[in-house]
Amino acid sequence: MRKGVGMAVTSRDVARLAGVSQPTVSRALRDDPRVSEATKRSVREAADLLGYVPSDAGRALSSGRTHRIGLLVTDLENQFYAQIIAPVHLELERMGYQLMLHTETADNETVAERLIANGLDGVILATTTVDSIAPLRLRDRGLPFVYFNRTASFVDADATVVAPAAGFGQAAARAVSLGHRHIGAVLGPSNTSTAQSREIALRAALAQHGLALDPQNVRRGPFDTHSGDEATTSLLAQDSPPTLIFCGNDVVAYGALNAARRAGVSVPEDVSIIGFDDLPAASWPIIELSTIAYDFAEMAREAARLVTHRIEQADAPIAHIEFETAFIERRTLAAAAARV
Amino acid sequence: MRKGVGMAVTSRDVARLAGVSQPTVSRALRDDPRVSEATKRSVREAADLLGYVPSDAGRALSSGRTHRIGLLVTDLENQFYAQIIAPVHLELERMGYQLMLHTETADNETVAERLIANGLDGVILATTTVDSIAPLRLRDRGLPFVYFNRTASFVDADATVVAPAAGFGQAAARAVSLGHRHIGAVLGPSNTSTAQSREIALRAALAQHGLALDPQNVRRGPFDTHSGDEATTSLLAQDSPPTLIFCGNDVVAYGALNAARRAGVSVPEDVSIIGFDDLPAASWPIIELSTIAYDFAEMAREAARLVTHRIEQADAPIAHIEFETAFIERRTLAAAAARV
DNA sequence: TGCCATTATGCTTTCGTATGCACAACGGGT
DNA sequence: ACCCGTTGTGCATACGAAAGCATAATGGCA
Q: In this complex, how many residue pairs, one in chain A and one in chain B, have their CB atoms less than 8 Å apart?
């Protein structure tokens, strides 16, 4: 950029007007205690007068900090991530950081490179698979990052995760008391830590009551509505379908509800559905989904705090923060229908 | 930043290894035709070997371009904006730009300042109110911006907007043919151009059939589910409620469906509901919302293209791009119930 | 009155990349 | 053999803010 017409006002211009040096302007505007109140006042006045706005690039280059945090997700249209973005954004802003959204496209290889190239101070990984190499790359670069919700195997790092045992324990107990014995599940992708931990928790909870998942009644697929729809359609098409279906998350459960409706199967009379996450729509009167809840907004904020803390104190001990779950019973869970 | 341990590899390091000057590295990696193929190859090799990643800040400072575009929204949890972010993000990425999400908080005054301070090349305004001053500030700064969906009064700029007339025309015709005469509406905030244009289009469409909105059957509120719920609850509580309710958008319509369900009013037997936007959930079997559709994903991509085009060619003529609408009939619209 | 501590400010350099300009090397045409 | 055009590379510097260090101004105390 060589001297355009609309060239921005720089700290040097402010300095000239205020009759001080450029470094003094820099210090005054950042409220450095070494600058006198009188000077600060006149500098601020000059800055206001000129409409001075510090250059992000200049500051970044000089200080080595961008105050930008990347949030890596795959599917922005997924309601779960939509719910996450807002609290992360707000919490980061509260702490003086800006959020940069990044999506993981097909070629996983370049994701870490793109994150690194973007001059981020830190990264929140929200859709890591257990076998992802991105964390390795970030670690090698020395770029601070935290796991949100999902974790990867190769590298340990700060993480906020869900502890699904309690929620599934309560749900299973209630389901058994309602007479459910033939239980199905639409699980998430087996290369995600969330799908893995939920599957383990579900199986353990059922085992408490002497029950097990019949492999015939288990489906796996991405955490999205379409996948839940397909899987449930296939489950319900069987000769003796399960009376209750646990879904990998709420978004999948919406798909399950759609599949049941399309198949003319009543919920909860013919089949009960249980989700996971307790998204806002789960409690809508037209949905009323039974689900396993936890404070995902707080979990998102915690991830934001973890990453900024890691940036500011690189040698802090690694923190794994678990969020407890609880079963929330709504319309979509009812007594098991007698089987034919 | 004064010489840390994990200091990043710079173009100078690459230059040293490749035995060329730093500017040659810069040119070689950007595929400048003035650099010989042989040199390019050896520079690329050296860069790979060292794991060189160009500094965003350095490039931004030197070139005066950040390749970052801000997207300004209010409510990230709103499904409409969630649907918008993905296409904008992808289209920008395709054109070599990064998306920065910004939210409008309570103090509108500082929004423009925050956008300007963030070293953006351009901005997409998605939630402007007609009386917003942000566009003025951006124009004064010379920061390129475009309106998405909504426009403001004070400043003209590139815009992508919806043309609601056709959609409402079709919907009204169909509604009338189904016997609807007492029609209500839950409109958006009157300081948004979208709420204004939809209200005008709706009234005009009804007028075609000699109908008008009874002020008693009109409610206004924010474009969210809660507001749609409240407004509809109040509409339905009247002595002779409307047989059909037009909602400001789909998210509002979801609220209307919830309100009806809670009030024990059947949709569409007792009341019909029509939305606007055709969000993915509108076509779900458990929802099946009649609505007015347009290609919002393409509209989002177009906004992305407009802003980058404006950046690259500041003196291009201002473009206003309209997206046509069409009525989509689903379960929530049926024949009007006979009135008591 | 002189010295030192403190406070406030300025000078200089740095961060990493990009670009205008100078210039070296090379080759072809006469 | 000379000139000139072309091609490829280097040099110097700009971009804007921040920070280390130097130093001027001030005040207190002996």
A: 131
